[in-house]
Amino acid sequence: MKRVIFRGQALPLLLLAPQLAVTFVFFFWPAGQAIWFSFLRQDAFGIRTQFVGFENFAELFADPLYIATIWNTVVFSVSVTALSMGVALLLAVLADRQIRGAQAYRTLLIWPYAVAPALAAVLWIFMFHPTIGLFGRMLNAAGVAWDYRLNGGQAMLVVILASAWKQVSYNFIFFLAGLQSIPRSVLEAASIDGARPARRFWTIVFPLLSPTTFFLLVVNLTYAFFDTFGIIDALTRGGPAKATETLIYRAYIDGRVNLDLGSSSAQSVVLMLAVIALTAIQFRFIERRVHY
Amino acid sequence: MATALAASRRRRRATAITHAILILGVILFALPLWIVLMGSTHDAATIGRGEVPLLPGAHAVENYAAAWTEGAARTTGVPVALMMWNSFVMAVLIAVGKIAISLLSAYAVVFFRFPFRMAAFWAIFITLMLPVEVRIFPTFKVVSDLGMVDTYAGLIVPLVASATATLLFRQFFLTIPDEFVEAAKIDGAGPLRFFWDVVLPLSRTNMAALFVILFVYGWNQYLWPLLVTTSTEVETVVIGIVKMIGSESNTDWNIVMATAVLALLPPVAVVLLMQRWFVKGLTDTEK
Q1: What sign for the dihedral angle of Cα B223, B228, B232, B233?
Q2: Is residue B65 classed exposed, middle or buried when 0-12, 13-18 and 19+ CB atoms within 10 A define those classes?
Q3: A27–B166: do the CB atoms touch at under 8 Å?
Q4: Is residue A143 part of a domain?
Q5: What is the ipTM of this complex?
Q6: Do A264 and B18 touch (CB under 8 A)?
Q7: Going from the N-terminus, what domains does chain B have, and what CATH number goes with each?
Q8: Chain A neighbors of B15, CB-CB under 8 A
Q9: Nearest to A112 among B29, B134, B190 (CB)
Q10: Cβ distance of A27 and B191 shorter than 8 Å
């Protein structure tokens, strides 16, 4: 809280105006509309609209396809998070060592952060496409019936790999920052006490990294939920047979392609609740860390 | 003596393993990029046959020239030059716009007292919980009601609010010593003068750091441009390349590869050239 301030009421409001205008017109108004529409239903011609209470939600959760999509989202998000965080932690621990060329390794590992998710998907096509992809061809030559465009499990695997690949650099940067903030003296003390590297890692480094790990857990889940839309759209379009359809992808298809206003809005509300839950978890954690 | 030797040998082996794993990691990350880079220098037939060349070919110039001026002629036919320009305009205006309006609102919230100050702050803050993904349809409707579909304004304005940038600037402004404000007041400088002469120069590092993050954010947008652009006039390169591979049977893969290289060049260059600010920006904004 600042003690010395400027006088005036009109000027600060004027300074805030652009931000607040955008916030109200493009955030609050549409979000409000999403909530309102989620209680409405339109007839097939979009002429009559009717208030139906929670019927859209009830229908959504009675739909086995929607339940399957929730399950897909969970499998996908947990796999992407575990894979990208695991690889990033390993690389960060190694890059944090006193070795030659540490800076070069860092540079060579952070660039995928800048690649758009949709573009990452394009890159991965050239890895796993059954006829023009490097590994896709190898697999087929080795006798594996590899075609992620037809096989749902393979499709899921490719979108997970591409999504994790893109996210590793982000996690790497944060793990590295976390590792560098661990006091060297603590590690040296353990080393003098005769603790081997593996033991030093699990008893000292890993616990001290837990704030970073926890923060990344939430960020990665959010990323897998929302930001991977481009990867899925470019690689599989949610297919084959909805095998890689996540919640956000279905909300998009129902809203923009199927023009099912009520259901898409209900899905938006479900997603909003998911974001609020994730944000709430994150804030609880930040509060805890302040007391650390 | 023997134990010291053993220890040094062990240490050397550990270093070798460290290097080996890191190099493997680097290769794993660079491999997809390498494939596109090499593929973009071969003709369509080579890639169509599925040879996946890992060494450069002789068709680099013609592939990049064709992509730049015509795009994938057989599918979409939008020149990549146009798409790159659209992406560039979008990325720069989003980054600059977010920084500008966040600077102003953070300044208002920190250096003034006025009714509903905290309400305004929370209103900005809460947008963190409303990413475009959770309000797809209604946001599209607002933009189309405002007649902003297929315009730069439609692409940019709805994304220009920024809770994270506002939070970052607020944090930073709180560290500016009160004495600065007092001195400015004694000198007879008003709030705008103080903003321009003191606050803005002090914020330069933060602005640079944010610019890197936000430029990449803007360049890499996918869902939002997909919603609000239907015409090729305002198509961004990330959207364009996905459209190119839409119908697989007659895709010019060599052109797709050249486009992929072009599309990831600007954001990757910004991140690598401004690496120091980038890492600072990332670790600051996300806290």
Answers
A1: negative
A2: exposed
A3: no
A4: yes
A5: 0.85
A6: no
A7: 2-69 (no CATH), 80-285 (1.10.3720.10)
A8: 97, 99
A9: B29
A10: no
Dig out the tokens for A193 from the structure. 């006490």
**Residues counted in chain B:** 287
Tally of domains in chain A: 1
- In this structure, chain A runs to a length of 292
The residue segments making up the domain with residue A175 are: 55-290
Q: Tokens 């992406």 label which residue? A: B87
The amino acid occupying position A133 is: G
Is A158 a domain residue?
yes
For B121-180, the pLDDT digits (tens) are: 888 888 877 777 778 788 888 888 888 888 888 889 988 888 888 888 988 898 888 888
pLDDT tens track for A113-130: 899 999 999 899 888 888
Residue bearing tokens 């994150």: A282
B145 touching A (Cβ < 8 Å): no
CA of B217 to nearest chain A CA: how many angstroms apart? 8
Contact between B136 and A251 using a beta-carbon 8 Å cutoff: yes
Which position has the token pair 């680097």?
B26
Q: How many C-beta neighbours within 10 Å does residue A50 have? A: 11
Query: Cβ separation of B129 and A275 shorter than 8 Å?
Result: yes
The CATH number covering residue A168 comes to 1.10.3720.10
Q: Which residue of B has its CA nearest to A99?
A: B15
Q: Is A241 left (phi over 0), alpha (psi -120 to 50) or beta?
A: left
